[in-house]
């Protein structure tokens, strides 16, 4: 065995790296824009990031105040080359080198810069600059190599879903043929430099522009009734959310150009919390639902149906309302925090994710007073597609009485949740379910409980996922066992 021939400290280092890389799950970061009236000082912004334990941020530029304030925080930072800068950098290697020296090398290693985002949706926002986009990426990468920073700092370029001709069904999605040459060069660069594809994916816009084809529950990560299931007719993959479908459409578009080893990071997504009279879906309720469900979805540490082993690292757009932006009201209403640091609406980020309780046992039950039609739909889904064992609530069985929708839904919801939570199961059921630490069992009817260290419930996530995605749920126990064996060998 290889480890037997290594020095103990080296073997331990390899094991630790293996453990960390396989246990740490996908992250949710935030975008920080600066078109903000009364933008807080950079030190206050970073204090808020630390208080909410946000570990990843994306800056749309290379703001010196923010980069200095982020020093020695370990927060991972993507910095942006603005669209106005792309042309000059793409035409001049020396300009690229100067940009890297000024905005990257000057701040590392103190500031944990991990990537450069070259422009923002260049192909669709400033198509006349497209011919120099890949040269700009190459020049920046070569400047990083010269500064010996290329292993730490990746280079990529965020693109919108507009570069994909037709996103549904995901299995047949392809890039718009007019961009094929440039996108092929981008993908070739990403593969050669071991980088990743930056995707800006907004279910809000896809839903609004779909003219009612898709239900809003699909855009908000909410459970879909049997008659509303979204299925790719070619692969028969069930899509529990529009977010997953957009990511899968991008993966399939990449594969259509014969690239299959480039991961996707969602550099922008979110939901506006306010809008004009012609923007009825831009509400606080929808924004809160979308972003909290997004966090739960990403924390599953699984990918979309076609790529279940590729977690979807994601950045929420955005930290503060950019109230100086032109356009409709919704354009200025994406912030999750007010500039005084308070939440615009309740959101579970960082250490606040999940639900706190005094007990280590958590149960998923139906909300008192929930609509009976929704409860019935929830029971049908849990006992059917959700694969819950509902035999105990059948007539003559121990949990049949009391014979109410509330009681039967609580049992079905809880059985589904306990079976499936480790691989993405949720406690939501169209808003009719809730978590509790109070045991709903009776003398004759026993509910299975879930035990969580420290009395903190894990983040619930929406929808069951396919059996092919279950590797993430067994990863930690396998690694713990492996570590025990390896350390035993080392000691021996």
Automatic annotation (TrEMBL):
GO biological process terms, semicolon-separated: carbohydrate metabolic process; defense response
Molecular function, one GO term: glucan endo-1,3-beta-D-glucosidase activity
EC number: 3.2.1.39
Classification via SMART domains: X8 (SM00768)
Catalyzed chemical reaction(s): Hydrolysis of (1->3)-beta-D-glucosidic linkages in (1->3)-beta-D-glucans
InterPro entries noted in UniProt: GH (IPR017853), Glyco_hydro_17 (IPR000490), Glyco_hydro_17_plant (IPR044965), X8 (IPR012946)
Keyword Signal among record annotations: yes
Key words, A-Z: Cell membrane, Disulfide bond, Glycoprotein, Glycosidase, GPI-anchor, Hydrolase, Lipoprotein, Membrane, Plant defense, Signal
GO CC entries: plasma membrane; plasmodesma; side of membrane
Gene3D superfamilies reported for this sequence: 1.20.58.1040, Glycosidases
EC main group: hydrolase
Compartments (UniProt record): Cell membrane
Membrane-related topology note: Lipid-anchor; GPI-anchor
Start and end residues of each X8 domain: 362-447
Similarity field: Belongs to the glycosyl hydrolase 17 family.
Stored PANTHER family: GLUCAN ENDO-1,3-BETA-GLUCOSIDASE BG1-RELATED-RELATED
Name of the protein: glucan endo-1,3-beta-D-glucosidase
Higher taxonomy: Eukaryota, Viridiplantae, Streptophyta, Embryophyta, Tracheophyta
